[in-house]
Amino acid sequence: MDNLSHIKIKGFKSIKELDLEMKPINVLIGANGSGKSNFISVFEFLKYAVDDNIEKTELYVKQHGGSDAFLLFGSNITKKINIDINIQKHKYSLGFEVDYNKDVLTSTSIASNLENSYDNFIYFEKDIKSINTYHFHNTGKAVSFKKYQEKNDYAFLRSDAKNIAPFLYHIREKFNQEYRQIVQSIQTVAPYFHDFVLNLVGEKNDERILLRWQHKNDLDNDFSANQLSDGTARFICMATLFLQPKELRPKTIILDEPEIGLHPTAIAVLSEIIQTVANDGAQVIISTQSVELANYFEPDDFIIVDYENGESKFKRLNAQDLGDWIETYQVGEAWSEGLLGGEPKW
C-alpha cells in the first residue's frame, strides 16, 4: 500500500508506546477517553511540528495546552516524543523535545530511508500533506461553511469544510460526474434534496459563494444551509469529502466519529461510501463508538483502543479474536457486549 502503512509512537499524549500496521480501512473503536482522538491528533501535530512557519507551530502547541499536554504525563515524566512512520514507501523517524524558553515542542531529529538526507524535511512535508484530518462536528448557524466563501478557495476541502461552497462549485464545473454522485448520495439520505444552488456574487476579482440548496417540491425557491438539519449538513460534508474526484482526494482521510447525528439509513450509506473509496485507492481512518456503524465493517478493519494503567493501548483485531462469536455477532455487537475489549475500565 502506497499510503500510510505503518506507525510507531512513543510518549505522545496518552500513548506510551504504539506499533501499528495500517490498512485501507482502519476503524478505531473504544470507550470515551481511551485515546482514539489522541491517535488522530498525531497527524495534525506532525503537520504543524514540521511547518516552516515557527510562529504557526508555536501557536498550535499553545492553543492545545502547551508542550506538557503533548507529552505522556508531562515533561517531568516524558522528555521526548518519538514517531516512526511509513508513508508512500518512505520511512521516517522523528524526535521532538520541549523548548523550555518558548513552551513549544521542537523537532530535534528526522531520519529516513531517502538517499539524500537533505531531502528529509522536503519529502516528509509533502508526504504528511497526503494525510488529512477532518472534523465536521460543528454545524451550528455561525459555522463558516454556512457563510459566504471566497470563490477561489477550492484547491482542497478544508478540515472543517469552511470552503465547501467553492469546492463544490469547482467540482460541478470541472468534474460533473463526481458532482452528480455527491448529489445522488445526499438524495439517498435526504430524499427532499434536489440540488445545490451555487451562485457567484461580487466583483470579478472578489467573487464569493454562499451554500444554498433546492427542495425537490419547490424548485422556484432556494434555501439556506441553516435550513438543513445538523445530520444532513454533516452528511453533505462527508459525501463531498469522500466522493470528490480522485485527482483532488487526499491519499489518507481521517475522520473523527462520523456517525454523530446520522440516521441509521445515512450510516449505512456512509459505510458503503467509505468501502467504495477504500477500494478505489484511498485510505480511511475513522474513530467511532457506534455499534451500528461498526457492524458494517470487517474484523480486520478494527483497532481496539483501551485505556489501562494510565496509558492507551491499541490492538489490531482479526477474525480469530472473535472465535465462535463470529457466528452470532457482528463486530459492533461483539464490542458492545464486551467481548473484544475497548470498554470502560472501572
Short description, anyone?
With 346 residues, the protein is an alpha+beta fold.
- Identify the overall geometry: globular
Give the C-alpha Rg.
Answer: 21 Å
Order of helix and strand elements from N to C terminus: EEEHHEEEHEEHHEEEEEHEHEHEEHH
Main sheet summary: 6 strands, mixed
Strand content: 25-35%
Assembly category: single chain
Number of strands: 17
Strand order of the largest sheet: 7-14-15-3-16-17
Number of helices in the DSSP assignment = 10
Provide the helix percentage.
25-40%
Poorly predicted regions are none
Class per helix and strand makeup: alpha+beta
Task: Give the end-to-end Cα distance, rounded to a whole number of Å.
Answer: 39 Å
Question: Overall pLDDT, averaged?
Answer: 90
Descriptive notes:
- By secondary structure, this protein is α+β, with helices and mostly antiparallel strands.
- Helices cover 29% and strands 29% of the residues.
- Strands 7-14-15-3-16-17 form a six-stranded mixed β-sheet, with helices on both faces. Strands 2-1-4-5-6 form a five-stranded antiparallel β-sheet.
- Helix 4 crosses helix 5 and helix 6 runs parallel beside helix 7.
- The longest helix is centred in the last third of the chain and has 16 residues.
- The mean pLDDT is 90.
Which helices and strands, and how do they pair?
Layout: E1 4-12, E2 15-21, E3 25-30, H1 36-49, H2 54-63, E4 80-87, E5 90-99, E6 104-112, H3 120-128, E7 131-134, E8 149-150, H4 164-174, H5 176-189, E9 193-197, E10 200-201, E11 208-209, E12 212-215, E13 218-224, H6 230-243, E14 252-256, H7 264-279, E15 283-288, H8 291-294, E16 302-308, E17 311-316, H9 319-322, H10 331-336
Parallel strand pairs: 3-15, 3-16, 7-14, 14-15
Antiparallel strand pairs: 1-2, 1-4, 4-5, 5-6, 8-11, 9-12, 10-11, 12-13, 16-17
Pfam families: AAA_21 (PF13304)
InterPro entries: ATPase_AAA_core, P-loop_NTPase, RecF-like
Domain ATPase AAA-type core: 25-293
